[in-house]
């Protein structure tokens, strides 16, 4: 007689599970708590459809870079040049499109290649010559700030063609031509939410069959009730306004692809292995040099993409574009659960961290809190996240 594997036999106690995964659940609950606080404090302005749309548009380039930065930090390094690369790529795009009237599609492709080359140049010194990434990318920050000023001659260049602006300011059209509600955007959000739930249920069932540890049912269903409900509700709010922004589709695609790469592929697991213990990874036959190089190339491409999105949103390239972006990106990754020592962190965690930073920026701006105190508060939140990581690691 065949014996079935019972779910409860594989689930750890609720208390043990919370202790082991406190960081993962903590950041999700922190995002919900922060949004609830600012929703009340702003008198309901935070969750208005137009503000949700602005929140997505304002943080799109930070989220795009946070995905790449997560892999760099997991690998045990850091990239301080991303803000300057954003400004440089935006300036390059402006000069090519506005000054030389080159097609914006071709320009976009060239800019992504340039971003990859920048990442390769910096990754080469870090990976093959073991020069600390902090020094290499700090030099890169200064170099590309200077090149941005040189390209623009110290002046702003714009505006861009309408087609290029659609990267950041366009919205998915409603195929059903509903006047009061973008029905297609709402249905798309529902389909994505249900697909995530189906994938999670299937993965959970496979883990049970293999005898792997799974999270307690209450946590699993509670978490996905929040995620599915949140996606559908946000889709509804966006649908009331103008629908889902084009850049949101770009972000969702990148999150899906990089989550798959990080969690389900050999190269993803090897990046975590290198960051966790490079010597052990080398002994097991992992080419840590090549992986380090590739993470910087990837970071360069995503920084270039963020530069195109940011330039399209501003509709101009300015000498100060990308200023201090690297600080928000790095803060988002650490707040999202990445470890300073490498080997720990998730793509979803980095995205949630970026949204925490974005909601705080947006909420504090609505409340009229000055930029000085905003910086103080964000710095304290980052410090708290790092302290929590250290204490949690020492307990383990």
Q: What key attributes describe this structure?
A:
single chain; 396 residues; mainly alpha; 76% helix; globular; disordered N terminus
* Mean pLDDT over all positions: 89
- Largest sheet composition: none
**Alpha carbon gyration radius:** 22 Å
In N-to-C order, the SSE pattern is HHHHHHHHHHHHHHHHH
Low-confidence stretches: 1-11
The span between the termini is: 41 Å
Give the CA-based shape: globular
Task: Give the helix/strand class.
Answer: mainly alpha
* Percent in strands: under 5%
Tally the helices.
17
Assign a percent range to the helix content. over 70%
Number of strands: 0
In brief:
By secondary structure, the protein is mainly alpha-helical. The protein contains 17 helices and no strands. Helix 3 (22-41) runs parallel beside helix 16 and helix 9 (183-209) runs antiparallel to helix 10 (217-241).
Summarize the structure in words.
The chain has 396 residues and is mainly α. It has helices at residues 7-10, 14-20, 22-41, 49-74, 82-99, 104-129, 133-152, 162-169, 183-209, 217-241, 246-264, 266-276, 278-283, 288-314, 325-335, 347-366, 371-395. Helix 5 crosses helix 14 (288-314) and helix 8 crosses helix 14 (288-314). The longest helix has 27 residues, at 183-209. Mean pLDDT is 89; it is low at 1-11.
């Amino acid at each position: 007689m065949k014996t079935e594997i019972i779910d409860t036999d594989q689930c750890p106690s609720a208390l043990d599970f919370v202790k082991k995964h406190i960081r993962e659940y903590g950041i999700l609950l922190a995002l919900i708590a922060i949004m609830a606080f600012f929703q009340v404090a702003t008198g309901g302005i935070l969750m208005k459809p137009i503000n949700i749309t602005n929140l997505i548009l304002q943080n799109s380039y930070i989220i795009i870079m946070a995905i790449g930065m997560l892999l760099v930090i997991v690998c045990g390094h850091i990239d301080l040049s991303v803000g300057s690369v954003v400004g440089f790529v935006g300036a390059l795009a402006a000069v090519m499109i506005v000054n030389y009237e080159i097609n914006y599609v071709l320009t976009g492709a060239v800019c992504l290649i340039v971003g990859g080359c920048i990442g390769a140049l910096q990754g080469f010194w870090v990976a093959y010559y073991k020069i600390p990434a902090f020094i290499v990318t700090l030099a890169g920050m200064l170099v590309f700030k200077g090149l941005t000023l040189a390209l623009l001659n110290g002046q702003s260049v714009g505006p861009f063609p309408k087609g290029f602006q659609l990267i950041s300011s366009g919205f998915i059209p409603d195929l059903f031509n509903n006047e009061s509600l973008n029905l297609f955007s709402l249905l798309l959000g529902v389909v994505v939410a249900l697909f995530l739930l189906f994938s999670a249920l299937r993965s959970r069932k496979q883990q049970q069959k293999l005898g792997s540890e799974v999270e307690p049912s209450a946590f699993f269903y509670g978490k996905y009730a929040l995620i599915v409900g949140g996606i559908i509700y946000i889709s509804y709010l966006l649908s009331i306004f103008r629908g889902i922004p084009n850049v949101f589709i770009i972000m969702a695609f990148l999150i899906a692809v990089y989550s798959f790469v990080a969690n389900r592929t050999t190269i993803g697991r090897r990046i975590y292995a290198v960051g966790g213990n490079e010597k052990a990874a080398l002994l097991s036959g992992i080419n840590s040099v090549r992986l380090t190089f590739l993470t910087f190339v990837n970071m360069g491409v995503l920084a270039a993409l963020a530069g195109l999105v940011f330039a399209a949103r501003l509709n101009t390239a300015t000498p100060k574009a990308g200023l201090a972006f690297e600080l928000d990106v790095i803060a988002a990754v650490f707040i999202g659960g990445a470890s300073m020592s490498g080997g720990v962190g998730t793509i979803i965690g980095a995205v949630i961290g970026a949204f925490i930073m974005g909601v705080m920026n947006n909420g504090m701006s609505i409340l009229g809190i000055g930029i000085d105190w905003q910086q103080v508060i964000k710095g304290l939140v980052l410090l708290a996240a790092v302290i929590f990581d250290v204490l949690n690691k020492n307990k383990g």
